[in-house]
Design brief:
Structural class: alpha/beta
Distance between the termini: 41 Å
Order of helices and strands: HHEHEHEHEHEEEEEHHHEEHHHEH
Low-confidence stretches: none
Radius of gyration: 21 Å
Strand content: 5-15%
Bound molecules: pyridoxal-5'-phosphate
Strand order of the largest sheet: 1-9-8-5-4-2-3
Number of helices: 13
Helix content: 25-40%
Length: 377
């Protein structure tokens, strides 16, 4: 049970009345995995995003693992550290060494100058993340990748619905993987979607998600079970139909939060280019403790006491985590470490009410006021 009045995140679920007719169909067909609803789901996403191929999988982590294998990534791969650990974990499961790259302190996305510095002959690809759904500058990333003949795999776990220069972020890489986990904008309980323009790659991925097992049972390629069930696909279809509405609401919530906190000094926000659209999978405050009078750590503690579940995404960053530290050979990732220290994400989900946002902001303002007053004494 969630003990918080305002959880950091909650899945936005459809009415059971719209889900149960699909469940009935699935039950009566007795085809309960990787069948008709999976195909329907893939087709709907393909039409909406205007991409060539969509391959549904059991989750984004297995999607990334299969892509790394099917795209023949090997040796070393550049990857951000300001991300969820699965971005790097999926590579290590493929025996690929991650080379951690710093982030940009304004966009939170991969830092291009650090990225270019770390390109060596051993690097086979760039894996990058649209952090919190904020589209990476894909033109710039592609220029760097093609100059050095590197493949581009995108962890778009947060970014189903995000648009770069008006088009889905899925249109701009060799492959992009979206997540349908409960913390993401569209959920199928568990699930993932791989998007690519390469029909050869898509065909290989479809085999690989089913152990690599071809009709003649003579495997030429070793995959594993990464199938999406029909039950999950049906939930995904209905949630996905709400995407436009979720996107509209979330843009509005960002405006409300910023407006409500506008008088507080020392708070800044992730920069999203005005030509782009972010899902705002998470909404973070970047806190300048000296100006605000409260550090991110203290504000976090006080908010939790008041039943507001704030969280520090991503802290610790991947290159500092116990299991990942040994892969980090370079020096400090200054922006990543600074951002992890100073970011605080607030409750944010598509079915929030405006009064929830006002109440959360009022609590933040009260905490800051009390702290600043006690400082002056
Ligand atoms: C959620 C998330 C994942 C993992 O997605 P699953 O569908 O749970 O496997 C990977 N990368 C990032 C950045 C995420 O936020």
């Amino acid at each position: 049970m969630n003990v918080y009045r305002y959880p950091i995140n909650q899945p936005t679920l459809p009415d059971l009345k719209s889900y149960s007719p699909l469940l009935k169909k699935i039950f009566s067909s007795r085809s309960i995995t990787n069948n008709r609803f999976v195909s329907v789901f893939e087709k709907e996403v393909q039409d909406y995003l205007r991409v060539k191929e969509v391959v549904a999988v059991s989750n984004a982590t297995t999607g990334l693992m299969l892509c790394a294998h099917a795209m023949n990534l090997k040796g070393k791969v550049l990857v951000p550290s300001f991300t969820f650990n699965a971005t790097a974990g999926a590579l290590i499961w493929n025996n690929i060494k991650p080379v951690f790259v710093d982030c940009d302190p304004l966009t939170f996305n991969i830092d291009f100058s650090d990225l270019e510095k770390k390109i060596t002959p051993q690097i086979s690809a760039i894996v990058a993340v649209h952090v919190f759904g904020n589209p990476i500058d894909m033109a710039r990333l592609q220029r760097i990748a093609s100059r050095h003949k590197l493949k581009v795999l995108i962890d778009g776990a947060h970014a189903l619905g995000s648009r770069y220069r008006g088009r889905s972020v899925g249109c701009f890489a060799d492959a992009t993987v979206f997540s349908l986990a409960p913390t993401k904008i569209v959920t199928s309980a568990e699930g993932g979607l791989i998007v690519t323009d390469d029909s050869h790659l898509a065909k290989r991925l479809r085999l690989l998600r089913n152990y690599g097992n071809p009709p003649d049972y003579n495997c030429r390629d070793i995959g594993f079970n990464a199938r999406l069930s029909e039950i999950h696909a049906a939930l995904g279809i209905i949630c996905f139909r709400g995407l436009d509405k979720f996107l509209r609401l979330r843009q509005r919530f960002v405006v409300l939060y910023k407006h409500s906190l506008r008088q507080l000094p020392g708070i800044s926000y992730q920069h999203v280019d005005e030509k782009d659209l972010s899902t705002h999978n998470y909404f973070g405050l970047v806190i300048d403790a000296g100006r605000l009078g409260v550090s991110a750590a203290v504000l976090l503690k006080k908010l939790l006491e008041k039943g507001i579940q704030a969280k520090r995404y991503f802290a610790p960053p991947v290159h500092k985590q116990a299991a990942y530290r040994k892969y980090h050979k370079g020096g400090a990732l200054k922006n990543t470490e600074w951002l992890s220290e100073n970011i605080l994400c607030l409750p944010f989900y598509s079915h929030m009410r405006e009064k929830d946002i006002h109440s959360i902001c009022q609590t933040i303002k009260n905490i800051c006021k009390i702290r600043r007053r006690s400082w002056r004494l």
